[in-house]
């Protein structure tokens, strides 16, 4: 029996780069296949070849044994291939059924009118067939992220997809939604569908996939059954060396208060309140983590702290000083580093070379400027140091940011911000899209900053990341803290409930040690007096002292 997909000796060259080098990939019908590899390993390029976005330089795409030539994604869709991107392509004000049939609507009156009843019934039947439990008449803006992902899958199925490609499918899901997605995988494969997913999460690949293919430097390192390997085995295949899998933070006594956020309120770009009465503090030598599903106010909170958004109420104090009228540039000058959520919009000028991007925010200051003129030698040397230390590929300071893969863009931003010698690091999803080897390095660097007495605000949707690195961990839901917990003792299930805005039962709360106090962290906690620290819980009513 022919496999569902056979990428036969695929080579894809770009000017100066071989992204895929004679890659063979075989995916059996009715299986779940994970594709792993470091940034720049060629995973996305290979899937873009399969989806018709790129034509291979050499090699053949075979679907059910038959060779195919795709000139566009339309050809791939016609061949039964669908792709679900990490960032959903849905129209929020429209209903589920309108999104699913968009561009392929059934019509009446000789094609002059959309047959809404037929479309609605088609979506209802598809949803029932695969156990999706999706209401066709629900509006996208009113449903959870997990349900939105099912709508994306329904869109592909509606167009006849037998082979589904998913890019980082769990990046924006709660733990409960991740388990629901795995159940969806099982239902799809039981009915003969084939799934390929790209992931940076080794545990996810082992849990969800039947087989895993690892790419390294554009070459297929091997395909293995998940029954026969461990996370450590996969990490070594990806990186080519043994990898420390879990970050380990030594207990320490935090120092002086660096950041105080008191009763903070902020609105999103539509004027809707996105941050609601949030209070917390971070001390020197402490990592304060914030977990939660994307879109629950984390972005607006961070932007208010870093000077990119004005608060509507409450206050932010940094190193004892109010930040109300302090510009973003001045906050950088005072030692506030920032790894933004959107690396392309907030972190880089995409058309600039890495030398120029390396001094953004510091282009007016020594050692990069003197007497109003930029010192390009110092700037080039700085870019070289960041590229080498953070393994940015290609290691060329003269390439533009837009020519780098997303993971390498992220590594360059992280390197630039961490090397500012800051007092406070605000790191938002610092390892998003970053491979396992670089993730290990970034985690180690965050712990080094903590050991050096820096304060770190870590915002991440990766629960293992925020649990492993944080001294205290807040969970954010609909603009407010639903709990501040001990990351060492809280369970993934309890975090999932808090992320969904639900409170664990009394026994779980006791197990999780949900803190109303800022100072009761698992690694020693701040050494401030008890009355002062008791003001710092998620429901704080009093202003935090500076």
How would you describe this protein?
The protein is α/β, with parallel strands linked by helices. The protein has a domain at 5-239: P-loop containing nucleotide triphosphate hydrolases (Rossmann fold, 3-Layer(aba) Sandwich), CATH 3.40.50.300. The protein contains 19 helices and 24 strands. It has a 6-stranded mixed beta sheet, sandwiched between helices. Strands 18-21-22-15-23-24 form a 6-stranded mixed beta sheet, sandwiched between helices. Strands 2-1-4-5 form a 4-stranded antiparallel beta sheet, covered by helices on one side. A hairpin with a 5-residue loop joins β13 and β14. It is globular and about 65 Å long.
State Rg. Answer: 24 Å
Specify the number of helices. 19
CATH architect. name of the domain at 5-239: 3-Layer(aba) Sandwich
Lateral strand order in the biggest sheet: 6-9-10-3-11-12
Report helical residue fraction.
25-40%
End-to-end Cα distance, whole Å, is: 70 Å
């Amino acid at each position: 029996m022919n496999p569902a997909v056979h990428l036969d000796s695929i080579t894809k060259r770009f000017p100066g780069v071989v992204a895929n080098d004679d890659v063979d990939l075989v995916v059996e019908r009715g299986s779940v296949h994970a594709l792993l590899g470091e940034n720049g390993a060629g995973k996305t390029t290979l899937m873009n070849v399969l989806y018709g976005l790129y034509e291979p330089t050499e090699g053949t795409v075979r679907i059910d044994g038959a060779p195919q030539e795709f000139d566009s994604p339309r050809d791939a869709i016609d061949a039964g291939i669908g792709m679900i991107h990490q960032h959903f392509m849905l129209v929020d004000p429209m209903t589920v059924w309108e999104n699913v049939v968009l561009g392929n609507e059934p019509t009446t009156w000789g094609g002059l009118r959309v047959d809404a009843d037929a479309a609605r019934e088609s979506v209802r039947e598809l949803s029932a067939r695969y156990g999706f439990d999706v209401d066709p008449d629900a509006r996208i803006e009113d449903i959870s992220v997990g349900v939105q992902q099912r709508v994306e899958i329904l869109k592909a199925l509606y167009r006849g997809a037998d082979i589904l490609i998913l890019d980082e499918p769990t990046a924006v899901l709660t733990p409960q939604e991740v388990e629901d997605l795995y159940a969806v995988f099982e239902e799809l494969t039981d009915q003969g569908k084939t799934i390929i997913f790209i992931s940076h999460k080794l545990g996810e690949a082992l849990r969800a996939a039947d087989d895993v293919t690892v790419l390294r430097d554009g070459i297929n390192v091997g395909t293995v059954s998940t029954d026969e390997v461990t996370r450590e085995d996969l990490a070594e295949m990806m990186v080519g060396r043994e990898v420390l899998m879990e970050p380990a933070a030594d207990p320490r006594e935090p120092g002086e208060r660096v950041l105080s956020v008191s009763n903070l309120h902020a609105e999103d770009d539509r004027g809707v309140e996105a941050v609601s009465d949030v209070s917390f503090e971070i001390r020197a030598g402490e990592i304060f983590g914030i977990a939660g599903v994307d879109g629950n106010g984390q972005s607006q909170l961070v932007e208010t702290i870093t000077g990119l958004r004005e608060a509507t109420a409450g206050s932010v104090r940094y190193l004892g000083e109010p930040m109300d009228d302090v510009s973003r540039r001045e906050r950088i000058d005072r030692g506030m580093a920032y790894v933004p959520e959107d690396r392309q919009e907030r972190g880089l000028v995409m058309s600039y070379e890495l030398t120029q991007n390396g001094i953004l925010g510091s282009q007016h200051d020594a050692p990069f400027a003197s007497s109003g003129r930029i010192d390009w030698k110092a700037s080039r040397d700085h870019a070289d140091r960041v590229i080498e230390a953070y393994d940015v590929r290609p290691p060329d300071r003269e390439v533009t940011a837009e020519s780098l893969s997303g993971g390498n863009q992220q590594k360059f931003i992280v390197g630039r911000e961490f090397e500012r010698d800051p007092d406070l690091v605000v790191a938002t999803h610092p390892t998003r899209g970053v491979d396992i080897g670089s993730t290990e390095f970034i985690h180690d660097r965050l712990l080094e900053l903590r050991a050096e007495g820096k304060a770190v605000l870590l915002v991440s949707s990766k629960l293992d990341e925020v649990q492993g690195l944080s001294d205290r961990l807040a969970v954010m839901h609909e603009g407010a803290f639903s709990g501040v917990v001990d990351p060492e003792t809280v369970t993934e299930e309890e975090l999932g409930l808090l992320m969904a805005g639900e409170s664990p039962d009394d026994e779980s709360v006791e197990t999780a040690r949900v803190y109303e106090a800022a100072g009761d962290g698992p690694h020693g906690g701040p050494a401030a007096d008890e009355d002062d620290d008791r003001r710092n819980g998620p429901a704080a009513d009093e202003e935090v002292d500076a």
